[in-house]
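[worker-b] picked up task from shared queue
[worker-b] task type: protein-ligand structure
[worker-b] ligand name resolved to NAP; SMILES cross-checked against name lookup, match
[worker-b] sequence length check passed
[worker-b] input payload:
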Amino acid sequence: MTPHPQAAPDDTTGPMAGKTVLVTGGTGGIGRATAAGLAALGARVAITGRDLARTRASAATITADTGNTAVDAFAADMSSQAEVRRLAREVLAAFPRLDVLVNNVGGFWSTRRVTPDGLEHTFAVNHLAGFLLTNLLLDRLKTSAPARIVTVSSGAQRMGRMNFDDLQGERGYSGQRAYNQSKLANVLFTYELARRLDGSGVTATVLHPGVVRTGFAADDPSPVWKILLPLIRPLLKSPEKGAATSIYLASSPQVEGVTGTYFVNCKPRTSSKSSYDQTTAARLWKVSVDLVRHTARA
Ligand SMILES: NC(=O)c1ccc[n+]([C@@H]2O[C@H](COP(=O)([O-])OP(=O)(O)OC[C@H]3O[C@@H](n4cnc5c(N)ncnc54)[C@H](OP(=O)(O)O)[C@@H]3O)[C@@H](O)[C@H]2O)c1
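[worker-b] inference finished, payload out:
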């Protein structure tokens, strides 16, 4: 059991002072740069990672880099729904308000893996974890309104197809297909969430961060990535540049009240045609509820 985190002292100033932000996957890559950017704007920032010591070390680095002492660390392996539920309980216990949730955790896995809940790993981590966490924190976001939910998708959403007949790749798995599907799911989820939150003062936006130099796909890259990545790595965006749209959507007054929109480079963009299909979005929502419901009883 992770020790209950003590909220760090908060004496910050800046445009985000008084706001509390949770960034999932804040130990590295785009998530850490997002958390650091928001901490620099004066927000109280909580980050998550799988290992508490590593997450605390990242939080300490963000404090050292920004001078903001209100940076908290939470540990949860988001491939496990029990851990997502525990994370939500700890966040609710630690923070009386939550102004922004950034669903950033995500990754690419070339080989099929199964989570402790018996679910395909890419779908579970990239979509279901954020779906569950958002729903568990939703009342706190509503009582903190105006509040924002920002989800990190990818340009890969354009190639995504929801294969409801084999959502979890049991009959055939391709890392790329699973990733594309999960990133389309991020967009469908956001648009459906925005419809459900209409009038609540809580907005839901989704973004493509660009192609960014991070630890992405490092665990289990595809053979193509293994060859390509070292060649193109120097050309990729820095994590700081990759975090710009997440930071913008989490903090900018320019997007106050903007909801149900996909952003690239801090600009609204059209997402794939299938992402606007409300029947597909409603079906995904229902399937997702069913896939998280059985762990609620445990
Ligand atoms: N990099 C790109 O070019 C790119 C492009 C498009 C979209 N994206 C999206 O951007 C988001 C962030 O990606 P990134 O490139 O910054 O990746 P990254 O460098 O691999 O960072 C991933 C973060 O997620 C955490 N994480 C990974 N698996 C986890 C799990 N099972 N439970 C809890 N935390 C977990 C990691 O923390 P620990 O390892 O400490 O647990 C880390 O903080 C993802 O949603 C990705 O799909 C990235």
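[worker-b] attaching auto-annotations
[worker-b] The CA atoms of residues 195 and 214 lie 33 Å apart.
[worker-b] releasing lock
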